Amino acid sequence: MIRLLTFLVLAAGSLAAARNLEIYFVDVEGGKSVLMVSPSGQSMVFDAGWPNTVNGSVSNDRIVAAVQAAGLKRIDVLVISHFDVDHLGDVPQLATRIPIGHIYDHGEIQGPGATNARAKERFDLYRATREKIGYTKVRAGDRIPVKGIDVQVLSAGGQLITKALPRAGAPNALCAANKQADALASDVEDDQSIGLLITSGKFRMVDLADLEAHPSHDLVCPNNLIGTADVYNVNVHGQFKGVAPELAGALRAPVMIQANGPKKGADAKSWPILRGTPGLKDIWQLHYSVNAGPSANPPEDFVANPDGSDGFHWIKISAVRDGSFTVTNSRNKFRKEYGKK
Predict the structure, then answer these.
(1) What is the tally of structural domains in the chain?
(2) Is 152 within 8 Å of 135 (Cβ atoms)?
(3) In sequence order, what are the beta bridge partners of 103?
(4) What is the CA radius of gyration of the chain?
(5) Residues 267, 241 contacting (CB under 8 angstroms)
(6) Is 73 inside any structural domain?
(7) Residue 154 · residue 160 · CB < 8 Å
(8) Is residue 2 part of a domain?
(9) Are 284 and 327 in contact (CB under 8 A)?
């Protein structure tokens, strides 16, 4: 009888956990890697951080640690948003550390990286690995199959969705007040980024990777094709070139995440724009932004890795299907709950 009761308690706990979407924003030192575990138990990793040979980083160690902390033994889906070095990482080496089920990306490297010898060599090694594992080229409007959540592709390969998503499409009053930013010719690959809307019940998170402000404008102007979100992972690590007030304002997310490094991203110029966004409650960051200074950083509880104390901590979101969610700082276990809309 005791064993039966113990089993039922454990089973109830497992079922409760299974109802949630778990999201880990992994500290890869100003690169990007996000682990998502759907309510079904399937996993998706969005970007792979830095290769081990660049910037002294050990992104694969941290990705594997997050996967293991989530109780997983494989990555079911790996999405590479684009092929810049801080997102492409070292997928061939990662695949030797943990099984990868399938890879999704936008196709072929574009811009200066296509002619840079080192970047091309990295991409060719990655391409051989994706062919071996199995991969799919995605386009705007596609869905990436992850059981238990809806993963909608908003941008890919320089193209954007052109039709409003369900319950979206309203005119965006912020477009008139915010001129579309200029495109940066040197950042072609950034604007090839796969951008995603992840939905679990009423919970919605937007992550546009390194899509810069210029193309982001067209997702919400003159009409908001996306709708609102609960969490917004700020474009380009919070660098100013990725921050479009008309996008942030259209999403009206109560929580923003800046996946920055200590000296990369979370720019001082980005802070007042993001902080002034309607509906915003809190900004969470992977690192204290040294370049931004005290006036352009959140309180320490909202920073996973404070200045001078880099413990490779992550930020975790646990989202319930009713739209409520909790954000936790793994460094100090500080957590904050956000109610459903």
Answers:
(1) 1
(2) no
(3) 78, 135
(4) 19
(5) no
(6) yes
(7) yes
(8) no
(9) yes
- What does the pLDDT profile of the chain (341 residues) look like in tens digits? 444 333 333 333 444 445 799 999 999 999 999 999 999 999 999 999 999 866 656 899 999 999 999 999 999 999 999 999 999 999 999 999 999 999 999 999 998 877 889 899 999 999 999 999 999 999 999 999 999 999 999 999 999 999 999 999 999 999 999 999 999 988 999 999 999 999 999 999 999 999 999 999 999 999 999 999 999 999 999 999 999 999 999 999 999 999 999 999 999 999 999 999 999 999 999 999 999 999 999 999 999 999 877 789 999 999 999 999 999 999 999 999 998 75
Question: What domain range includes position 127?
Answer: 20-338
Q: What are phi and psi of 86, to 5 degrees?
A: -85, 5
The four Cα atoms 244, 237, 103, 101 give a dihedral, to 10 degrees, of -130
Residue 23: other Cβ atoms inside 10 A: 27
Contact criterion met (CB below 8 Å) for 237 and 262: no
Euclidean distance between CA atoms 146 and 151, whole angstroms: 7
Query: How far, in Å, CA of 124 to CA of 130, rounded?
Result: 10
77 close to 102: Cβ distance less than 8 angstroms: yes
d(CA 19, CA 115): 46
Whether 177 maps to a domain, the answer reads yes
Whose structure tokens read 């352009």? 296
- Spatial separation of the C-alpha atoms in residues 25 and 257, rounded to whole Å: 9
DSSP string for residues in 110-174: -GGGGT-HHHHHHHHHHHHHHHHH-EEE--TT-B--BTTBEEEEEEETTEE--SPPTT---B-TH
Please calculate the CA angle 268-46-23 and round it to the nearest 5 degrees: 80
| Within-domain flag for 286 | yes
- DSSP conformational letter for 237: G
Contact at 8 Å (CB) between 103 and 78? yes
CATH no. for residue 27?
A: 3.60.15.10
Give how far Cα 113 sits from Cα of 49, 122, 125, 201, 310, Å.
Answer: 17, 10, 14, 39, 30
